[in-house]
Amino acid sequence: MHHGKYRFILILLVLPLALYTIFVLSPYVQAFSIAMTDWQGLSPTYNYTGFANFTRLFHDGDFWIGLRHNLFLLTCIPLIVCTLALFFSTMLNHRGSVHGARFYKVVYFFPSVLSIAVVAVLWQFVYEPRNGLLNGFLDAIRLDSLRHTWLGDGDTALGAIMAVVVWGGVGFYVVLFTAAMSAIPAELYEAALLDGAGKWQSFWRLTLPLIWGSVQVSLVYLVIGSLDMFGLVNILSVGPGGPDNATQVISLYMYQNAFKFGQFGYASAIGVTLFALTLVLTLLAFRLTRRERVEY
To answer: Looking at per-residue confidence, does 83 or 183 come out higher?
Structure first.
């Protein structure tokens, strides 16, 4: 009987695993070999160049600019998103603090339902320098001196795109953290209150340790997302990647080399480097956020 069950499960898994291997794993493996060539994407022939693409990458100033921007986003986005999500989740979970908490959860989560392309187009209207919602709002409250070309200025472009990421990402983690907090027995908070613990102490010593597994997963996911950013930068930024490389990121630079400059071998080298960087930073994030599991 058990033998038949396992055979049935194996039959069900054969087709999905075959499709995953062909369309996901196979391109990944091919990228490593293509990175060692000078393939131009459409040419039928190519030459093996060894580690020449990686040597060129090491001396490529535009790549280092993109890496610096990704590391900046990596530092800011997980911290800001998780902090805001924890704050909103705590407020929504605290009994009597907010009326209509379920409605607010839906409102917070709504941006997560939209695709990246839709979000980027919406925020183009917000940041539009002449008739955009942001500059229009500043005019309405008589702060027209703060009007700005948000995406056209190198000093504000990357920060403006990062604000879109925060706006679109907080809601998902609010729902995630709220679900984790709601699973904590109310008796634990009552016991903490009897022991004289305040709201901050209850959050820091009770809530956060008990939901740390969700926080850790969120941080790791945000680290991976911060190393991407292709969709928003490609649609929102000037150029894209500008002005003057002010919003350049590694994924966009890889795309430009492949489909704009026809350097698929070099683009594959960038992709392999990004893969290695993502893997290392993900493992590092797991290592730094590892804590003893608290059970209740």
So the answer is: 83
Pick the CATH number of 61-288 from 3.40.50.360, 3.90.380.10, 3.90.180.10, 1.10.3720.10: 1.10.3720.10
- Band (pLDDT 50/70/90 cuts) for residue 6 is confident
Backbone angles phi and psi of 294, in degrees to 5: -105, 125
Buried b (16+ CB within 10 A) or exposed e, 166-186: ebbbbbbbbbbbbebbeeeee
8 A C-beta contact, residue 232 and residue 164? yes
Q: Quick one: average pLDDT of 275-292?
A: 85
Quick one: tokens of 129? 């320098």
**Which pLDDT score, from 0 to 100, does residue 79 have?**
94
CA 32 from centre of chain: 24
